[in-house]
Amino acid sequence: MKPTAVLLVLLLAPLAAAQTPPDHTPVDLAHVESIAGPPRAPRLTGAALEAEAKHIAAVLRCPVCQGLSVGDSPSAMATNMRQQIRELVAAGFDEDQILSYFEASYGEFVRLQPPLRGVNWLVWIAPGLGLLLGLGVVSWVLRGASTETPEAVAAAELPVEIVPDPLPDDPARAKAVLRVRELAYGWPGGLRPGKA
Amino acid sequence: MNRKVLVAGLVVTLPLVGLMLMSLGRDSHKVESPLLGRQAPPFSLRPIGGGAPVTLESLRGKTVVVNFWATWCVPCVDEHPVLTAAPQRYGSDVVFLGVVYEDEEPNVQSFLREHGAAYPSLVDEGGKVSIAYGIYGVPETYFIAPDGTIVSKYVGPLRPDLLDGFVQEAQARAGTRRSDAR
Amino acid sequence: MTASLGRALILLALLAASAGALVGFAAGVRRSAAGLAWAQRLAYVYAAAMVSANLLMVYALLARDFSVGYVAQVGSLEVPNWVAVTSLWSSLEGSILFWGLMLGLYVLGATWTNRHRHPESMPWAIGVWLACAAFFSFLIAGPAQPFHTIPIPPSDGPGPNPLLQNHVLMIIHPPFLYAGYVGMTIPFGMAAAALLSGRLGPDFMRSLRTWLMLPWVFLTCAIVLGGWWAYEVLGWGGYWSWDPVENASLLPWLTATAAVHSAILVERKGILKGWTVTLILASYLLTVLGTFMTRSGVFNSVHSFTQSAIGPTILVFLALATLFAVAILAMRIDRLSPEGHLEPGVSRDMAFLLNNLFFVLLTFTVLIGTVFPLVVEAVRGVQMSVGRPYFDRMVVPIGVALLFLLGVGPALPWGRASPEQARRALLPPLGGAVGLGALGLALGVRSPWTLVALLFGGYAAFVTFSELWLPVGQRIKVRGEGVLEAVAHVQSRGRRRVAAFIVHAGMVLVMIAIATSSTQGRTIEAQLVRGESVALGPYTLTFLGVDRVSEPHREALVANVEVKKGGRDLGVLTPRMNYYATQREPVGTPAVRSTYAHDLYLSVLNLDAQGQTLGLHAMINPMIVWIWIATGIMGLGGLFGLLPTRRVAVAPAPAMAVEGSLSPARSR
After folding, report:
1. CA-based nearest residue in chain B for residue A82
2. Cβ within 8 Å of C, A 13-42
3. How far apart are the C-alpha atoms of C11 and C178, rounded to whole Å?
4. Element at A152 (helix H, strand E)
5. pLDDT mean over C98-125
6. Shortest Cα distance, chain B CAs vs residue C286, angstroms
7. Can you tell me the distance from the alpha carbon of A92 to that of A39, in angstroms, rounded to the nearest whole number?
8. Rounded distance, CA C122 to CA C204, Å?
9. Dihedral over alpha carbons B27, C392, C429, C492 (to 10 degrees)
10. What is the DSSP string of C449-488?
11. How confident is the model at residue A171 (pLDDT cuts 50, 70, 90)?
12. In this complex, is the C-beta atom of A93 within 8 Å of any C-beta atom belonging to chain B?
């Protein structure tokens, strides 16, 4: 029962937090610096600050929610994290530093976009590789197709003279014979050029 | 037998099925803490009910057990008696601290009045410390060695035997620093 | 008593399915008509047993019979009756039982409608269907048994998960999803039958296509209904977060849509048979993979059921089914010989090929992203996430490419187009593109991807509507018919084509709506005391106070927020926090005011019980309502295409074994 109970707690934690309005106490900048180094970016204000904070919140995973970003989550934890992000952006830390700070506490799990380390690069290039592979397959199929048009097949066949039986004189019957040949052999006119 | 189709089919499907097989038993809700073996993030928090702020720095040289909890969390309520009884069993070189996670002071105070408190529970304004410690939910308990490194983290309600094991492990690490995180 | 009866019915289903599978395969090998008849009977027995078992469980849930294991697990005296019924599918064991119900209904329908047709293929098909049915019956009878007898029944139960009691969409979304998901078993069996019998003629293709389209319609609606549910219930204001379980429902839809299109080439030209069969087989296997992902606990998701023992069992079935599919493909694909040829160059054939390419690429991308955390954990031992930012970045370009094809594909003629033909076909719709693009710019759209989507969407809309009008216009001009008469004739003579373009129209609208809502929304967060207001766009939102509401299964704190627009009073919106008796934590419900232009979306961040302060999250989400409307159009269009018309079947494509198709027959 234990894992289920913890699971329930983890699932429903953000909702309990919704009872308390978030507080505003500044994040420990010295602690952040010890993890990520001194601020590298210019200190932002106003609309630029909000835009950058929103962007960073969109690529951080809310730890107590299932798959939501910190920007999307209504939980108190996410609200606190959004506040911290704003303060860090205002203090001049850049996106990489801020993500490293949260990663130091929560692990790589908290980043919604895989950072480029180890085997992670595979997921970034896989769709592009897939596209190239797919285009290759399509062009291979088309090349096969262009060699199979009736004209191409006829051209590739050794020239063998096949003389079909003469058509009956009656035009209606001639038409019927042609139609039967077409049905039987699958080619307009009845006989596949060059083949018996 | 079309070999190309066979090979292509197996190349596409076998790794996928194999990956699923390897991942069985994985609990996707347990995340390893990157803080293991690192210095515990510093904090200075005031206790519930008032008093001087408690600083982690001041407890250097002692084994510290930091338990994140809340009154609305059922397993936290379950483990509360275990934690309340624990400080008596250890000497003064093991310090227990509670950090309240996303709860309201009146609730916490009445809970502690009713169920008893053997050690201070601290108010985490703005969730700063919860974030610094990478809390995914409650209850989560950190065991910090006398030199300030986090030795282990336990997710879930503690039992006396588990608690003893973790405390002993933290006491034994005094003076040694683990460099790998796992 | 109920529990033992339920267990007996499940056992009957298991026996009938297992026997039927064996009989079906034997009948296929020996081409035995008697064997086929027996397989059909066993299929009917299976269906009857499954339907009865489900009805029995619904009865037990309504009667609150806590001596039945599943009822003790999810039932409750406090929940209303509609919640009691829907808890049939709310928890793991019940959902597998429900899966059995859907499969039983599908097997019944597919066996009965084909009872006099395709005698050389149907035994195989029934055999495969019943083999799948046998597996799921085994699951129900064993690891996921809902009919345990509880010797000392409790007096009450905990009720289903509160998130599943919050909204009426709980009634609709899971049945649609299961109808789509489970339904993929039928085309799977038929595709396997085509391989095993070595023939895929036009008649069988037509049946196969019908039974592919039916679950496709349900799956399309289900995916969007899931998004709608998330939008209305979860409170973050979005409808798709690339959650692993969401992706699990999308993957089979992608391959099935590709199969629907390549099936057109099979029917028209007799080409790409093996490829289409592969796509259909893959669609079913992806549903099994999806079931595994949802129920194994391996993937971190808001939807996943708690970890259970049935994960490994499903994985074994997945492995066996996959090996079976690969084996029969490798062994028999060469028997499906093409009758025509693909037209290279600028042609509609080419567009179909590219359509398949992009859908398969999408499938691959979503699949890789979803399972990648498992790969990394296996290789680097580190837990990481692949989330919405990644998927959005990868999927949007492919989606836009598909939108491009939605316009250009149907515009192109079937054969190789001469430059003159191409120009005549491809230039006029540019008017639509420019029109919609200009409209977007005028309304303030500046995001590049959205603008591109508007351009392609405008083009595609022009093409789709002109293709819908074309035959009608021809009839009016050439035959002098009136508009209504022409439309009536066209929809009965060319029903599938009309249906296809209706579905396309819906798809174009969905993509335009998604593109717009993704980038043109606005959002604010505000802490309001009672009486305080905040502005969002043209709206003024005022926090009036809090009401306490008591319902049988929950208490709620309802925040009253007055909405004014330009001085005009638009009423009061009521986002709420629900407190359930069986859970300690509340579940929020947003309040949504929809207009055709946009949704005003309010959710509660925090609320104190005295009603003095409200943390409000407010959003304006443009064009959301069109996503739901357009999906309805797609669903109705798809169903319309499945309605039978009375017509004489034409002679099949040349060089085909004649399969009794020269007599007048009802076509599907």
Report:
1. B126
2. 13, 15-22
3. 22
4. helix A150-156
5. 95
6. 11
7. 5
8. 10
9. 10
10. HHHHHHHHHHHHHHHHHHHHHHHHHHIIIII---HHHHHH
11. confident
12. no
Q: For all residues of chain C together, what is the average pLDDT?
A: 89
Tell me the three-class secondary structure of B29-65, residue by residue: CCCCCCCCCCECCCCEECECCCCCCEECHHHCCCEEE
Strand ranges for chain B from DSSP E = 44-45, 54-55, 63-69, 94-100, 121-123, 140-144, 150-155
pLDDT per position as a tens digit, C27-38: 999 999 999 999
Tell which wins on pLDDT, A175 or A84.
A84
Cβ neighbours of C251 (radius 10 Å): 23
H helix count then E strand count, chain B: 5, 7
What does the DSSP 8-state code read for residue C568?
A: E
Cβ separation B23–C374 shorter than 8 A = yes
Q: Calculate the CA dihedral of residues C216, C219, C223, C224 and round it to 10 degrees.
A: 70
Q: Using one digit for the tens of pLDDT, what is the confidence trace for C282-293?
A: 999 999 999 998
Distance from CA of C65 to the nearest CA of B (A): 28
* Mean model confidence pLDDT for chain B: 87
Under a CB-based contact definition with an 8 Å cutoff, are residues A45 and A58 in contact?
no
pLDDT in tens, B125-138: 888 899 999 998 88
Rg (CA), chain B: 21
Cβ of C300 within 8 Å of Cβ of B28? The answer is: yes
Q: Per-residue pLDDT tens for C208-240?
A: 999 999 999 999 999 999 999 889 887 788 899
One-letter identity of residue C572: V
Structure tokens that stand for C132 in this block: 């799948």
C528-531: list long-range contacts, CB under 8 Å, 24+ apart. Answer: C528/C613, C528/C614, C528/C615, C528/C616, C529/C612, C529/C613, C529/C614, C530/C611, C530/C612, C530/C613, C530/C614
Q: What's the pTM?
A: 0.87
Rg of chain A on CA atoms, in Å: 35
Specify burial of residue A2 (Cβ count, 10 A radius: 0-12, 13-18, 19+).
exposed
- pLDDT score of C358 more than 80: yes
Which ipTM did the prediction report?
Answer: 0.85
